C-alpha cells in the first residue's frame, strides 16, 4: 500500500511543486531525491538553485551526487552530527594557531 512517502521538490520563491514522487513508507528518500534531480536537470538551472534539505536526507553519497552536478545545497542536521570532528578541529585549531589548517571533506568519516 502507498503511505507516508511523498517527497516533493518545491520552488519556495513561487510556492509551486516542481516534481513529486509517490512511494511506499519504506522508500529511500535519498534515492527519490536523486530521481527528482534526474527529472529536473534539463528544466532547472541548478547553478542558480540552492536545495534546502531536511535532516533525513543527509548522507555522504547524496552529498557527492549533488556535488557531481554542481548543485548548491543546505542540509538541516541534528546538533550531534560531526560533533566529534568539530571538537577535534577546535582542539587542533587552538593548538596550531600559527599554522595553516585545512578541513577535508569525509576525512575518515562516512555518514
- Count of individual helical segments: 3
Kindly provide the radius of gyration, computed on alpha-carbon positions and rounded to a whole number of angstroms: 17 Å
Helix content: 25-40%
How far do the termini sit from each other? 30 Å
Low-confidence stretches: none
Helix- and strand-based class? alpha+beta
Strand content: 15-25%
Largest sheet: 2 strands, antiparallel
Write up this protein.
With 111 residues, the protein is an alpha+beta fold. 31% of the residues lie in helices and 15% in strands. The chain is built from 3 helices and 4 strands. It has helices at 29-40, 60-68, 83-95; strands spanning 8-11, 16-20, 50-53, 72-75. The strands form 2 sheets. Strands 1-2 form a two-stranded antiparallel ribbon. A two-stranded parallel sheet has the order 3-4. Helix 2 (60-68) links the parallel strand 3 (50-53) and strand 4 (72-75). The longest helix is centred in the last third of the chain and has 13 residues, at 83-95. The mean pLDDT is 76.
Amino acid at each position: 500500500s502507498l503511505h507516508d512517502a511523498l517527497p516533493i521538490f518545491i520552488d519556495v520563491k513561487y510556492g509551486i511543486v516542481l516534481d513529486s514522487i509517490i512511494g511506499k513508507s519504506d522508500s529511500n528518500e535519498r534515492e527519490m531525491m536523486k530521481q527528482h534531480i534526474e527529472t529536473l536537470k534539463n528544466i532547472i538551472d541548478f547553478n542558480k538553485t540552492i536545495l534546502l534539505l531536511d535532516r533525513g536526507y543527509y548522507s555522504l553519497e547524496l552529498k557527492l551526487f549533488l556535488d557531481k552536478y554542481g548543485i548548491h545545497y543546505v542540509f538541516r542536521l541534528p546538533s550531534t552530527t560531526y560533533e566529534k570532528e568539530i571538537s577535534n578541529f577546535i582542539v587542533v585549531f587552538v593548538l596550531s594557531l600559527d599554522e595553516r589548517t585545512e578541513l577535508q571533506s569525509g576525512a575518515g568519516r562516512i555518514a
